[in-house]
């Protein structure tokens, strides 16, 4: 009957409206959670580092750029905080070098390499071995790639470089090559790289 059809379509319209409203409220709720998470990460970063507003503003853009790789607001704050605290030359890097260092650290963070370790390695490369910020970022990426090629845990390779870097400085620009050879020999022989 006509009345039955009208009730059916009225009911369907009401259910569709409820679905749209529910979806809209879910989107708003999720957006608010993301905004609160980002705000908390930025406040935490400012409290722990005392950094200038310039560095706090980096967090949202870094999180947005690498969100598809799994970088959260907290991870982005950790990346910026680690670089700010552990890489003494970070604040004085040129914008392009700063970007390269940030991007490398963020990508490695999403791949399981702690931002603090990456920052310390770049500090060794930049301060002690004389590489520019962009060169330090490129070498850090190479170490990550080489660890996979050699079948060495990326975290182990990076932490070994952090630990041995100060001793390898005597080799100057060849220090990275010496370290890679040591890591390969340690892997082949089963002896720790320190020995």
Strand content: under 5%
Morphology call: elongated
List the total number of helices.
9
Unreliable spans: none
Approximate helicity band: over 70%
How would a crystallographer describe the biggest sheet?
none
In angstroms, what separates the terminal alpha carbons?
A: 89 Å
Mean pLDDT: 81
Over all CA atoms, what is the radius of gyration? Answer: 24 Å
Question: Which class do the helix and strand fractions yield?
Answer: mainly alpha
Helices and strands, in order, run as HHHHHHHHH
Got a strand count? Answer: 0
Overall description:
This protein has 195 residues and is mostly helical. 78% of the residues lie in helices and 0% in strands. Helix 4 (73-86) packs across helix 5 (95-110), helix 6 packs across helix 7 (133-150) and helix 7 (133-150) packs parallel to helix 9. The radius of gyration is 24 Å and the shape is elongated. The mean pLDDT is 81.
Mind sketching the topology for me?
Elements (H helix, E strand, L loop, with lengths): L1 H48 L3 H4 L1 H9 L6 H14 L8 H16 L4 H14 L4 H18 L3 H15 L6 H15 L6
Helix pairs in contact: 1-4, 3-4, 4-5, 4-6, 5-6, 5-7, 6-7, 6-8, 7-9, 8-9
Q: Can you give me a brief rundown of this structure?
A:
By secondary structure, the chain is an all-alpha fold. It is built from nine helices and no strands. Helix 1 runs parallel beside helix 4, helix 4 packs parallel to helix 6 and helix 5 runs antiparallel to helix 6.
